[in-house]
Amino acid sequence: MQTVIITGGAQGIGRVTTQYLLTHGYKVAVWDTDPEALDEMRDLLKAANSRAAVINCDVASDVAVKNALKLTLDQFGRIDHLINNAGIMIEKPIDRLTLDEWNRVIAVNLTGPFLCAKLAAPHLQETRGSIINIASTRAFQSEPNTFAYTASKGGLVSLTHALAVSLGPAIRVNCISPGWIDVTAWKKKSKAKHDSLRPEDHQQHPAGRVGQADDIARMILFLMAEENSFITGENFTLDGGMTKKMIYV
After folding, report:
1. Is the pTM of this model over 0.85?
2. Within 10 Å of residue 99's Cβ, how many Cβ atoms?
């Protein structure tokens, strides 16, 4: 049975993907830092018993990543796939965004995937596994005041092909750039919402709907599959066609 590490796995896309992978026969190690979300995941995954691990890990810290890697290997004995999903955003005008805030976003969103890939690589080489980075359509287009997040996601797309070229053929590395994915119901309880989306929210997508977290989970499963081993170094935009739609107001 293959083992998957998913960072930022306790909320949103990560939480849904964790459950999806467990139902498809994988063992999953969830790495996250949010205490409330981690506790909720531990309760949620009790039924999975030995097939799931929930680990407190700040991916921007090499010490924390090394410790989480050891705990994962102690429980599962192997690592087959790494999903770099952890990410944070700070939205502020450029004159209010501090250097510390910029550095923290870059550290989690870009340095974190680098550290996780670097430290997991020897184990992924043994299993001829894969790395999947979760970027964003913000790598290619922006809303105001998302400087660090946008820069980090653009860097993650580039880091993907750099890793693919350097770590292949033993390790495949790909990237997914989600667009508007509705994860409001999949956040920790204190932040979760169940607001209804408006018709116009769906209509602005050429696909006719806003994305769901399981859209991303299915793509992750596809990219991990051995029969798709010819795919590496690629970024896949999953946005219902929004980045292809020209808008004139």
Report:
1. yes
2. 7
- Sheet-wide strand order for 81-84: 52-56, 27-32, 3-7, 81-84, 130-134, 172-178, 235-238
Give the position of tokens 């946005």. 239
What are the residue boundaries of the structural domains of the chain, listed by start? Answer: 3-244
Residues 6+ apart with CB under 8 A from 17: 6, 9, 83, 85, 213, 216, 217, 220
User: What is the amino acid identity at position 221?
Assistant: L
Cα–Cα distance measured from residue 242 to residue 205, given in angstroms and rounded to the nearest whole number? 5
Neighbour tally for 155: CB within 10 Å:
19
Q: Indicate the DSSP class of residue 145.
A: T
Residue 48 to residue 50: CA distance in whole angstroms:
6
Residue range 179-194, pLDDT digits in tens: 989 888 767 677 777 7
Query: What are the structure tokens assigned to 148, written together?
Result: 């660090």
H or E, element range at 32: strand 27-32
Domain 3-244: give its CATH superfamily: NAD(P)-binding Rossmann-like Domain (3.40.50.720)
Rg (CA), the chain: 18
pLDDT score recorded for residue 185: 74
Q: How many CB atoms within 10 Å of residue 115?
A: 19
* Residues annotated catalytic, as ranges: 149
The amino acid sitting at 245 is K
First to last CA, the chain: 52
Phi, psi dihedrals of residue 115, rounded to the nearest 5° = -60, -45
Q: Quote the CA–CA distance of 213 and 17 in Å, as a whole number.
A: 7
